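stage 2 :: seqdesign
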């Protein structure tokens, strides 16, 4: 039998005469990558997809860190965000690069021939004429989209993003690792925080390194410190280590605690622009994603004050928007909780054994997990088998014995964790937000009790509104997770899918297509099951969460239905009276 594909007769041997030396596959070489390198190469998975999104995600990460920080010390947050546009000439002078005039125009991406330019200008003139006619007739005027010739490649530019807060600040010695080492942070425990991965601020730095080569500046002061820590650093991508330029204690000139972070990145404000910066923000559908985010953040965080500044290269486009604090009542600080036995895996049990300060098995079970009392722990040890004793040293457990504990944890019944470690937005805040955002005719809110998925407690709160002057017809969905507004990947999110597919709106006298419906859903948990590190949406695959979202929306709909029916009855009665009096 012919040995097909053997070394003597390779199936795809090059044809004679075409190439004398057959291509040889290179031997694969084993390489390692640092986490910083990995995220630099795959920055899209952390929400840094393109310059516009990079600017948005940078602002988002810095704002969320500021809020986490202020809330952790029960301080009413006051956050100042400034985005300063830096033109190419200014940027070049900042880095000491002499600006050079173009010589060979044809080399450039935005080069257009005289004919193409003529055609573009003629088209623009035609459009302008149509717009003017439409405006005169009172019709909607569409904003012209800049053509390639006008804006060049994607309209990207440079921006200095500064975020200043009144939070906890950071210990002087920890700052380099907090900002210069990917996957390092203080929010890894089981606590409801906006941050989780120890990645966001470092991604902003990696992007600044990739796009401008400039370092990040961090100023910080903690309560009781009589100095300001200043650190300028970038990141050694290959070693995932901070590369410190300056790290010093400076004189504290004013009473302040908090942090101020400044980073210069490439971005794109124009694709994320406001239609007009004087428009009423509540009505602006086309507003910049960043402003949209800020507005929704103000909705879900009414106890915070935000000042947002955009400083344009051309001063006429500059703006300052203040999102004033609307209440002084802050939700309680979320508490750190212990692991639920049904949520731990083998690796985690081993880590807990290594880290525990407890001596024996009984103490370990009782103190390292929620919902295991002393009596319960004794019963569990009895169930593990004869070689397990309450007093046996925890560090002496063999690998097999740890597997036995894990198996029992997965099979045994445990009470659900309670939600007292969580800090939901609260029905009051949701209602406040809906009224501010949509000015509806009717609104109903609902706050569910704590539930559990994979051993993690979560709470779903919802608000559904009906009507409103400037609300578009159909479903207007607003999603929040651990009090972060979610603006991207709407279609795949559990809230959108539930509202679109699992709610029978007509049974609540609501017309899903024609009525103006606002749906607000806020989910808080010690672990939000985000899809991806960009924290952009919650998948639809966790039954417990999908069911709770559906139930919360339904509860609002039941309340609304009563109001709608009453309103309809009142209208019918009025009509009858009017007919009788005719
Ligand atoms: N404004 C700030 N005030 C105080 N500490 C901060 C501030 N910004 C960052 N930090 C500290 O730096 C750490 C790292 O921040 P980073 O944004 O990289 O990750 P994270 O917020 O922990 O998680 P995530 O990647 O999910 O956002 C934080 O855990 C926090 O301890």
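stage 2 :: out
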């Amino acid at each position: 039998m012919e040995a097909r594909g053997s070394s003597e007769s390779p199936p795809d041997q090059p044809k004679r005469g075409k190439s004398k030396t057959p291509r040889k596959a290179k031997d694969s070489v084993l390489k390692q990558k640092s986490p910083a390198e990995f995220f630099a190469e795959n920055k899209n998975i952390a929400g840094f997809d393109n310059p516009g999104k990079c600017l948005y995600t940078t602002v988002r990460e810095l704002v969320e860190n500021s809020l986490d920080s202020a809330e952790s010390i029960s301080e009413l947050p006051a956050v100042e965000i400034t985005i300063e546009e830096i033109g190419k000439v200014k940027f070049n002078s900042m880095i000491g690069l002499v600006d050079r005039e173009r010589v060979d125009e044809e080399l450039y991406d935005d080069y257009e021939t005289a004919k193409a330019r003529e055609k573009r200008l003629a088209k623009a003139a035609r459009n302008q004429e149509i717009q003017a006619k439409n405006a005169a007739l009172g019709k909607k005027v569409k904003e012209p989209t800049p053509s390639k010739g006008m804006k060049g490649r994607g309209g990207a530019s440079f921006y200095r993003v500064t975020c200043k807060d009144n939070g906890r600040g950071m210990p002087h010695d920890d700052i380099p690792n907090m900002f210069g080492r990917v996957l390092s942070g203080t929010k890894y425990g089981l606590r409801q925080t906006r941050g989780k991965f120890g990645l966001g601020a470092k991604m902003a730095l990696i992007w600044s390194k990739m796009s401008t080569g400039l370092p990040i500046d961090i100023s910080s002061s903690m309560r009781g410190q009589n100095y300001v820590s200043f650190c300028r650093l970038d990141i050694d991508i290959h070693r995932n280590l901070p590369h410190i330029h300056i790290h010093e204690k400076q004189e504290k000139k004013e009473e302040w605690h908090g942090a101020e972070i400044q980073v210069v990145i490439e971005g794109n404000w124009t694709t994320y622009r406001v239609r007009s910066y004087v428009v009423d923000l509540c009505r602006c559908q086309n507003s910049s994603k960043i402003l949209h985010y800020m507005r929704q953040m103000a909705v879900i965080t009414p106890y915070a004050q935000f000042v947002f500044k955009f400083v344009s290269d051309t001063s006429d486009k500059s703006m300052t928007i203040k999102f004033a604090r609307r209440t002084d009542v802050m939700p309680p600080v979320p508490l750190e909780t212990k692991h639920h036995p049904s949520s731990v895996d083998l690796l985690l049990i081993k880590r807990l054994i290594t880290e525990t300060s407890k001596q024996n098995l009984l103490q370990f079970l009782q103190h390292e997990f929620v919902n295991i009392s002393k009596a319960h722990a004794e019963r569990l040890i009895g169930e593990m088998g004869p070689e397990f004793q309450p007093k046996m040293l925890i560090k002496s457990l063999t690998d097999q014995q740890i597997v036995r504990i894990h198996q029992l944890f997965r099979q045994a019944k445990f009470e659900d964790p309670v939600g007292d470690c969580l800090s939901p937005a609260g029905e009051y805040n949701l209602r406040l937000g809906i009224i501010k955002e949509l000015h509806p005719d009717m609104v109903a809110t609902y706050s569910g009790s704590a539930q559990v998925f994979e051993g993690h407690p979560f709470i779903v709160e919802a608000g559904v509104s009906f009507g409103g002057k400037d609300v578009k017809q159909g479903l207007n969905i607003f999603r929040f997770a651990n009090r972060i507004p979610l603006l991207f990947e709407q279609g795949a999110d559990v809230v959108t899918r539930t509202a679109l597919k699992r709610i029978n709106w007509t049974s609540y006298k609501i017309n899903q297509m024609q009525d103006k419906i606002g749906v607000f859903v806020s989910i808080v948990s010690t672990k939000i099951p985000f899809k991806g590190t960009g924290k952009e949406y919650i998948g639809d695959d966790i039954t417990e969460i999908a069911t709770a979202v559906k139930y919360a929306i339904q509860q609002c709909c039941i309340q609304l239905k009563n109001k709608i029916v009453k309103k309809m009855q009142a209208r019918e009665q009025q009509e009858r009276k009017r007919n009788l009096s005719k």
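stage 3 :: structure notes
- The chain is about 35% helix and 20% strand.
- Residues 543-581 form the longest helix (39 residues).
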